[in-house]
Each structure stands twice: as C-alpha cells, then as structure tokens.
Specification:
Layout: H1 3-26, H2 29-56
Helix pairs in contact: 1-2
C-alpha cells in the first residue's frame, strides 16, 4: 500500500467517524449516515490497497 493511499484511507475513516459522532450527538440522522458512508469508503479503500499489495508479492 503506498503511503499516500494509506494516509487517504485512514483520514477518510477518521473524518467519517468524527462526522458520525458529532451528528449523532446533535441528532442529525442524515449527516450521521453520511459519516457512516465516509467511514465505509475509507475502509473499502484500505481493503483495495491491501489487495493490490498482495498481488505485488
């Protein structure tokens, strides 16, 4: 996994988690769902990069 992609994936997860928690505290379900989506997208990016690394050997 390239360092840049690893950082992007982790940052996306952290931002998503922060958005989700703040939205939950305020009671905004729409924004909370967007935070969940960002977090999931970051995790998916991380899995994709790990798969690419596995094929590089």
């Amino acid at each position: 996994m390239s360092a840049g992609e690893k950082i992007k994936a982790r940052a996306e997860q952290m931002i998503g988690k922060s958005v989700r928690k703040v939205a939950h505290a305020v009671g905004n379900r729409t924004t909370e769902a967007k935070g969940v989506g960002l977090e999931a997208r970051g995790k998916a990016r991380q899995v994709k990069e790990r798969g690419k690394d596995a094929f590089k050997g």
